[in-house]
Amino acid sequence: MAAPAQGAVASAGPGPEIARPAAGARGELVRRMRTNAEYVVIPAIALIAAGLVFAVFLLAIGRSPIDFVDYVWRGGFGTAFSLQNTLQRSAPLILTALAVAIPARIGLIMIGGEGALVLGGFAAAAIATPMIGVVPPFLTLIVMFVVGAAVGAMWVGFAGFLRYARGVNETIASLLLNYVGIAIMNFFVEGVLRDLSNPNKPSTKPIGEAYMVGKIPGTDVHWGFAVGILLAILLQILMSRTTFGFAARIVGGNMRAALAQGLPVGKIMVACTMIAGACAGIAGFYEVAAIQGRANASLAAGYGFTGILVSFLARHNPIAIVPVAILFGGLVASGGLIQRRMDLPDATVLVLQGLIFVVLLISETLYGRFAIFRANETKERT
Amino acid sequence: MNAAIVTVLIAMLGGAIRVSTPFMFVALGECLTEKSGRVNLGLEGTLVLGAMVAYATSYHTGSPWAGVLAAGVAGSALGAMHGSICSLKRVNDVAVGIAMMLFGVGVAFFFGKPYIQPTAPRLGSIPLGGFSDDPSLRSALDVNPLFFVGILVAFLMAWALANTRVGLVVRTVGDSAAAALAMGLNVNRVRILATTVGGFLAGVGGAFLSLSYPGSWNQGLSSGQGLMAVALVIFARWNPLRCVAAALLFGGAGALGPALQSVGVTQGYYFFNAAPYILTLGIMIATSSATRATRDMPGELSMAR
Questions:
Q1: Which of A34, A249, A284, B279 has its CA 20 to 30 A from that of B215?
Q2: In terms of Cα–Cα distance, which of A221, A281, A184, A195 is closest to B277?
Q3: Mean pLDDT within A182-199
Q4: What mean pLDDT do residues A318-327 have?
Q5: CA dihedral A273, A117, A323, A59 (to 10 degrees)
Q6: Any idea what the CATH number is for the domain that residue A87 is in?
Q7: Confidence check on the interface: ipTM exceeds 0.85, yes or no
């Protein structure tokens, strides 16, 4: 039988753990460690299994898996330069993964991150155009940040609203909105907002060096990375330590129960999807204000899609998203090196990501099958 | 001005026939899959992989129809994979669909790189516009045989679902797994088979993309057609014949941008390109309801709230 879709998503993340009575402080700790270990061990097994399958694939096409690992290490983590490049690329991944994780906590599979990133980045660039040279950089960046986040929030929030108000399937709606978002950006970038002095790629006017977001002191990594981590922490607190998060967990666990309790399900849904969209919009803002300097088609670089995988691997846990995003940031960063040195197409990283995603979802079936993780078999049995 | 409108309408007619064919195949495949109680969101990936495999096979064998068959086989493989993974306990079919979409697209881009440059033999078309002297009408009525195959499949599927034992089995499994179990049916096996056949159809739809219209293989070949086709099934209320009608409607919407461009209306090109997505979304908003399940929806579908 098909497992109920919402339950499967809602069970993600080590969220709803209701303490059992008479467990004792120590027993409770052991129990929690055991049950939480499952959420780390099983995704790790999935990652290794996918890696093995990918290694066989590489061998089958006559490439060395060891070389592959070597290049990922060198291109993504080995040197100070590559590590900083990785961290830079993990910033949008953290943010787009958060855009998947927060709705997932209320049982929605939203994948509108790509569209919200593109539109958020575009809106930030568009609002900056008349401000350049008039308004001081710091103030301009604040306005860009807010506008990028707001546009992203509207975009994904719209899909959340449709889900609540009209029962529209949020996965399909958010995916469609990705295409619409990219089309809207292209419409403006090739039309009224096109920088005519740039004959190459249709883009908005550059915001200029003085208006770009700076680097974190002592590094070559822009502030988006720090903001991503900060948001991950804040959202973890929001979802696990506040009444709002508690209500959201009830909505995710059992929609009917939440309705029966009189919880404002619609508001929670729209709020969670707006938070998600804001995260993706902020990712777009940093792509424009820290990397590209202008909005153009390169904004749709697939960060939104890799973010889906990051969030699923992290089991939609905001804190866990950070290391997973860094891992995949490294993979994305080493893509160019792998392509050149191993003579592999640039889609190699896509194949590996797809493989990891598929194997990861297969591993969902393993939960609850290993006695070692079971909470009620603590001291007496072992 | 009048002539321009006629040109646009003819271009839209031809466009509707051409653009609707991949929609039709994917929608029919998804329709069968959903009738059995599963959602396969991965058909976008199947479409892209089908397009690549068809093009590559046609290039190597010189036979575009061998390409169509190979695309179907590749689609079946992805479908069988999706169906089998979803048969595991606690696995969410929507999430698997997204994963399969990324996987299918990744594999297609990976193996498809060498085929972007060369030209493969394309599928021929049936000239139905012989009666007319108008060259634009004649080119609009150069219809690919796959279009008719799709319509035939739709009629066959509608008939089989309503009148045969296999159809009854698929519908029972899709409406109530408990009832199917009580009948002694193997629910998972039926669903895996339905998803596999659905994948075959979607793969054939991909073959149309690369071998007929647009008729070449590149990485931007499909931009969400597979996904829109999935939404289209909801609009068609899980009826194969209505899927064909909806596909034609979508084909017309998709042909709007190029048709306007052909008469020199280039303004808002991107807006018209976005028309199919906006239309899909609008249709989903119009046909869904917050309070009741969509009419005729198979009871086991996880889309049901």
A1: B279
A2: A184
A3: 87
A4: 96
A5: 120
A6: 1.10.3470
A7: yes
**Joined tokens for residue A130:** 């008349």
The whole-number pLDDT of residue B294 equals 73
Task: Dump pLDDT digits (tens) for B214-246.
Answer: 888 988 888 888 888 888 898 899 999 999 999
Q: What is the structure's pLDDT at A113?
A: 95
- Whole-model pTM? 0.90
Residue B182 contacts A, CB cutoff 8 Å: no
Residue B202 contacts A, CB cutoff 8 Å? no
Nearest CB to A176: which of B88, B280, B291? B280
Alpha-carbon distance A175 to nearest alpha carbon in chain B (angstroms): 8
On whether the CB atoms of residues A215 and A225 are closer than 8 A, the answer is no
DSSP letter for each residue of A200-255:
SS-BPPP--GGGS--BPTTSS-BHHHHHHHHHHHHHHHHHHHSHHHHHHHHHHH-H
Of B95, B223, B302, the CB nearest to A179: B223
CB contact under 8 A, B99 and A361: yes
Contact between A267 and A255 (Cβ < 8 Å): no
Task: For residues B92 and A323, give the distance between their C-alpha atoms in angstroms, rounded to a whole number.
Answer: 25
B85: nearest CB among A179, A312, A361: A361
Residue B295 in contact with partner chain A when CB distance is under 8 A = no
If one counts the domains in chain A, the total is 1
Is A104 within a domain? yes
Q: Is residue A63 part of a domain?
A: yes
Under 8 Å CB pairs connecting chains A and B tally to 168
Q: Which domains, and CATH codes, for chain B?
A: 2-287 (1.10.3470)
Chain B residues whose CB is inside 8 A of the A165 CB are 290
* Residue A296, SS3 per DSSP: strand
Alpha carbon distance A179, A11 (integer Å)? 30
Integer Cα distance of A154 and A201 in angstroms? 28
In B, minimum Cα distance to A57 occurs at B107
Please give the pLDDT value at position B58. Answer: 95
Please tell me which of the candidates A169, A180, A362 has its beta carbon nearest to residue B274: A180
How many angstroms away from the CA of A178 is the closest CA of chain B?
A: 9
Check A353 against B102: CB less than 8 A apart.
yes
Which range of residues forms the domain containing residue A340? Answer: 5-13+20-373
pLDDT tens per residue, range A66-103: 999 999 999 999 999 999 999 999 999 999 999 999 99
Q: Which of chain A's residues have a Cβ under 8 Å away from the Cβ of B84? A: none
d(CA A349, CA A326) in angstroms, rounded, equals 15
Whether residue A378 lies inside any domain: the answer is: no
The DSSP string of chain B is: -HHHHHHHHHHHHHHHHHHHHHHHHHHHHHHHHHHTT---TTHHHHHHHHHHHHHHHHHHHS-HHHHHHHHHHHHHHHHHHHHHHHHSTT--HHHHHHHHHHHHHHHHHHHHGGGSSS-PPPPP-EE--TT---HHHHHHTEE-HHHHHHHHHHHHHHHHHHHSHHHHHHHHHHH-HHHHHHTT--HHHHHHHHHHHHHHHHHHHHHHHHHTSS-S--TTS-SSHHHHHHHHHHHTTT-HHHHHHHHHHHHHHHHHHHHHHHTT--TTHHHHHTHHHHHHHHHHHHH--SSSPPTT--TT-TT--
Closest residue of chain A to B266, computed from CA coordinates: A191
Q: What percent of chain B has pLDDT over 70?
A: 97
- Does some domain include residue A193? yes
Decide if pLDDT at B161 tops 90. yes
Lowest-confidence region among A141-145, A222-226, B13-17, B144-148: B13-17
How sure is the predictor about B197, in pLDDT bands with cuts at 50, 70 and 90? very high
